[in-house]
Amino acid sequence: MKNLLILLTVGSVIMMYSCKDQPQLKYPETRKVDQMDVYFGVEVSDHYRWLEDDNSEETAEWVKAQNELTFSYLEGIPFRNKIRDRLNKMWDYPRYGSPFRAGKYYFYFKNDGMQNQSVLYIQEGLEGEASVFLDPNTFSEDGTVALSGLSISNNDRWFGYSISRAGSDWNEIKVIDIETREEQPDLIEWVKFSGTSWCGDGFYYSRYDAPKAGEALSGKNEFHKVYYHKLGTPQSEDELIYQNRNYPLRNYRARVTDDERFLIIYESETTSGEAVYVKDLSKKNAEFIQIVDNFEKDYSVLDNIGNELLVLTNYDAPRKQLVLINPDKPKPENWKTVISEKDEVLGSASLVGGRIIVQYMKDATSRAHIYDYEGNYISEVNLPGIGSLSGFSGKKEDNIAFYSFTSFTYPSTIFKFDVAANESTVYRAAEIDFDADAYETNQVFYTSKDGTQIPMFITHKKGLVMNGNNPTLLYGYGGFNASMTPSFSVSRLILLENGGIYALANIRGGGEYGEEWHKAGTKLQKQNVFDDFIAAAEYLIDQKYTSPQKIAIQGGSNGGLLVGACMIQRPDLFKVALPAVGVMDMLRFHKFTIGWAWVGDYGSSENEEEFHYLLEYSPLHTLKDGVEYPATLITTADHDDRVVPAHSFKFAARLQETHKGANPVLIRIDTSAGHGAGKPTAKIIDEQSDIWAFVFKNFGVTPKY
Length: 705
Known about the structure:
Elements: E1 5-9, E2 12-16, E3 36-39, E4 42-45, H1 57-75, H2 80-91, E5 95-96, E6 100-102, E7 105-111, E8 119-124, E9 131-134, E10 145-152, E11 158-165, E12 171-177, E13 188-191, E14 197-199, E15 202-207, E16 225-230, E17 239-242, E18 251-256, E19 262-268, E20 275-280, E21 289-292, E22 299-305, E23 308-313, E24 321-325, E25 336-339, E26 345-352, E27 355-362, E28 365-371, E29 377-380, E30 388-393, E31 400-407, E32 410-418, E33 423-428, E34 439-447, E35 453-461, E36 472-475, H3 493-497, E37 501-505, H4 515-519, H5 527-542, E38 551-556, H6 558-569, E39 576-580, H7 599-602, H8 608-617, H9 619-622, E40 631-637, H10 646-658, E41 665-670, H11 681-699, E42 701-702
Parallel strand pairs: 36-37, 36-38, 38-39, 39-40, 40-41
Antiparallel strand pairs: 1-2, 2-42, 3-4, 5-7, 6-7, 7-8, 8-9, 10-11, 11-12, 12-13, 14-15, 15-16, 16-17, 18-19, 19-20, 20-21, 22-23, 23-24, 24-25, 26-27, 27-28, 28-29, 30-31, 31-32, 32-33, 34-35, 35-37
Helix pairs in contact: 2-11, 5-6
């Protein structure tokens, strides 16, 4: 290494070097084809269209060549294995999920530390001896078959669970008798975007028809249907409950109230907004009643209170409210407001102990309040600090509930909550090899391009010198009404332990301030999202946290799009870019699997005005020849059928074609993995080790391990 120098930081000395003189990598040649598409009179080339074929030998050879180059580069980083060793050590601590009750039994998840998948345990009461109920590590030798969902019948006898193979969104549903622990013969296949909702001696679920050969991971998902499965019968005999032959690009999900009186079906065209149908199952030959006939707002039925449905909605309340709806009088003028809209965003509500426990979000951090069923305020729940709450798990008749709480330097901790007394006690705390007291988190508000104030969390060692030279990772998402709140990540500790800074920007497009914040980052306002993220980096630089030579940007899925767009719009601002499983082709995303459902956020190239707007920021189409882009490590996986890997393949090929300079631009393609859910611990550690090795090498920083 050349130009060695020493940087003095608080409590540690980090060796640094210059990467300017590293040789230009020789990238694999990628064949170009003369594919030209015409949109509203505009010709758009797509030279790497052939990479969309995930079944071709040529694509497989391209993947192999790219991975050989990428792993050759990563293997040459001398501290890569030391990072992996440190991650292995930190990761190896017990992690628990919140307990939940079914009859006389309590269930909870536990991972001993390095298990690929968390194990589900069962015990009688809270003091009983725990035993393994279901171990997903036995599903496959390499941990790539994961538990993706579960549900328990209302009579507490049957345990339904879903599995996903190699990270795919396709699920299979199976059933276990809770008392005998015996696996039942029932097997439901080709399930996607569905839970299981029990009623009587069976359950409702949603699925697609079996895909054509070779199209399971990339073919468009059409004609979602709701079925009812009776236990002990083959799937071929399942009863078709609801379908709509006139609209192939709609999704349906079913849910039954706890007393099994009402069946609710949600109908959606995109990722936000749904129509709602209700059937009163207590009435013989009852028909579905449509209580919402459009897709303009969001609705979630929590349960019924007598003849009325308790519904969480943003109708006439951008930050949400709780209302009672009588299915026989469903028009909004007949609704009864239980908890009205407030300044904070109403995130969720739980019915426990005869109370409504409501979770609010204020400036992207959690609050919790208790109300009675009439909506009268009782008290606030005292939380451990600024962070994120998950819960409350408990039944309507229980006085005891459980919730988890976490923050950037506060590992997830399980609390037992006495509803009547409003008292929380630690039930299970994490023990990890990390000194949380040595770090601090601050929330700042910075100004975006159009003057909007954007919140951002910044975490680092206490006493860190703001000299404009600290290694920094800026993370963002900015879409689909998803809120980015404080969370704990073992892999992030690699940065913090080495004098680095982690920044999370709560940019528009998310749900941090309700529906209006979300809409301000969609369709023809999507540039706001990129402007917000760019302004976050500029703030960190202006305030001397870091510099353009020490800042990396990261995001996954829609966040991968964010990183792709921003590294192209401002290549001078970032040293490293980490787009993961990103949506990179904004003209064709709707043609694969469930991509059509994202049109509500992005718009569509089939609309002339939206096409021109998409073309202006689409990462694949805005790369320019001869530009020095940041050092880039694209990550994707061969079984990602949410954002198909062709997005990343084509973007990588085009980036390698256009990029100039010595910054490496590589793609890491995982095998037997998908969009991220259910990924085994071993694969997570391997991937995170590679990412941090790449970041530190291109920062010119040698971590202290």
